């Protein structure tokens, strides 16, 4: 598995240095889009408005959203690209298995994406004046969010494996993902609080906002709930991918686009 990870990491790095303009353009676009929204909101609210912690929470939600869009699209878009180039069947004949190949490929590409996301976050903080709290404990809630994101990514990959073209479905999920990540579900009470612990990635996003935007101490109980949530979605996503792989092989969908 380690050899597979290093091979996929080398593959991701080669693609990055061969086509750097694509990654840089994506970073600039996401940054400019947020700045446009921020400038429009300040113009509407007036020059004297003070966003306070809300601005920090919005920055966190937006940056997380851009990162999770990449993660959720990674496997599905990768499957479509492999199908179009005619190499999809070769991946499923790998001795590692298709699910392991795509998981290691996703983790390898995430390594580079995290660096670009951090650069984008620093740029957004500079142009908006947001002040976020950084500590090593941030990796704990972030890891729970990534678990859930990869679970959904495998589920979307299962759809791509069977349907081949899922661009419209991915677009719908992107807007739903913006709601899940940006809504302050940590403030919900009663039955809504229970719902926030069931929805994917919302528990981890709430803990991350409390740490970075509000400067609160790490809530270990909420973190444990977030880990369970992310692990469940990851297991369900992988199981759906395995089931889709079996049906695709039975229906002979791997050899052609």
From TrEMBL:
Keywords on record: Membrane, Transmembrane, Transmembrane helix
Record carries keyword Repeat: no
InterPro entries assigned: Nod_factor_ABC_transporter
Membrane-crossing residue ranges in chain numbering: 21-45, 57-81, 102-127, 139-162, 169-185, 223-242
Name the record gives this protein: ABC transporter permease
Lineage, broadest ranks: Bacteria, Bacillati, Cyanobacteriota, Cyanophyceae, Leptolyngbyales
